[in-house]
């Protein structure tokens, strides 16, 4: 894919979602780390409902380890995989206290060593909490990147991240991450993408395939009508 096409994609998605941002509610790097850890295989909406009370009860790493594991489990029981996540949170908090004075480290290589913190979580934290450019590849980013040809269908998550980092200007990594998420979450959905009204339909490999399907004939007719208006 040439640079002109990449620029067109970025500008188009930017015009659609100019105010894209992290939708996990937080007030500091520590809360963000906990929220992103909880968001694995769970919607941001559910996480925000849980953290609304969680962040009132637990303010510091010391607070999380001052309660029995079972109590923390109950506080996040609405979250998927809550038992494992509760263990990760307490282990993470102990490390923050023992090694980092209770503060979340700013370095990506240190963040990924924390329990429950993978590369995606670390990218979200450094970019949103510490203003370090990064592209976190979640299911939305991966899906959109592959559909638009910014990455190959069989690329791993890490390969998708590397290709986006190569094609997107570094100073746009963080905002592009947010815009790709919004584009995938609210427009280019996994099951029912809004292909008929998508300004990137001519570029999208998935969209072209869907429009050729007999099941999408009405959608195709809708696209044609828009082009003639």
From TrEMBL:
Domain spans labelled HhH-GPD: 38-186
InterPro entries assigned to the protein according to its UniProt record, in alphabetical order: DNA_glycosylase (IPR011257), Endonuclease-III-like_CS2 (IPR004036), Endonuclease3_FeS-loop_motif (IPR003651), HhH-GPD_domain (IPR003265), HhH_base_excis_C (IPR023170), HhH_motif (IPR000445), Nth (IPR005759)
Molecular function, one GO term: class I DNA-(apurinic or apyrimidinic site) endonuclease activity
PROSITE patterns: ENDONUCLEASE_III_2
CDD domains per record: ENDO3c (cd00056)
Documented EC number(s): 4.2.99.18
Entry keyword DNA repair: yes
Enzyme class name: lyase
Cofactor: binding details: Binds 1 [4Fe-4S] cluster.
Amino acids binding [4Fe-4S] cluster: 188, 195, 198, 204
Keywords: 4Fe-4S, DNA damage, DNA repair, DNA-binding, Endonuclease, Glycosidase, Hydrolase, Iron, Iron-sulfur, Lyase, Metal-binding, Nuclease
UniProt superkingdom: Bacteria
Keyword Iron-sulfur: yes
Family matches, as Gene3D superfamilies: Helix-hairpin-Helix base-excision DNA repair enzymes (C-terminal), Hypothetical protein, domain 2
Chemical reaction(s) catalysed: 2'-deoxyribonucleotide-(2'-deoxyribose 5'-phosphate)-2'-deoxyribonucleotide-DNA = a 3'-end 2'-deoxyribonucleotide-(2,3-dehydro-2,3-deoxyribose 5'-phosphate)-DNA + a 5'-end 5'-phospho-2'-deoxyribonucleoside-DNA + H(+)
Cofactor names: [4Fe-4S] cluster
Cited NCBIfam families: nth
Family: Belongs to the Nth/MutY family.
Function: DNA repair enzyme that has both DNA N-glycosylase activity and AP-lyase activity. The DNA N-glycosylase activity releases various damaged pyrimidines from DNA by cleaving the N-glycosidic bond, leaving an AP (apurinic/apyrimidinic) site. The AP-lyase activity cleaves the phosphodiester bond 3' to the AP site by a beta-elimination, leaving a 3'-terminal unsaturated sugar and a product with a terminal 5'-phosphate.
Protein name: Endonuclease III
Originating species: Paenibacillus sediminis
Gene: nth
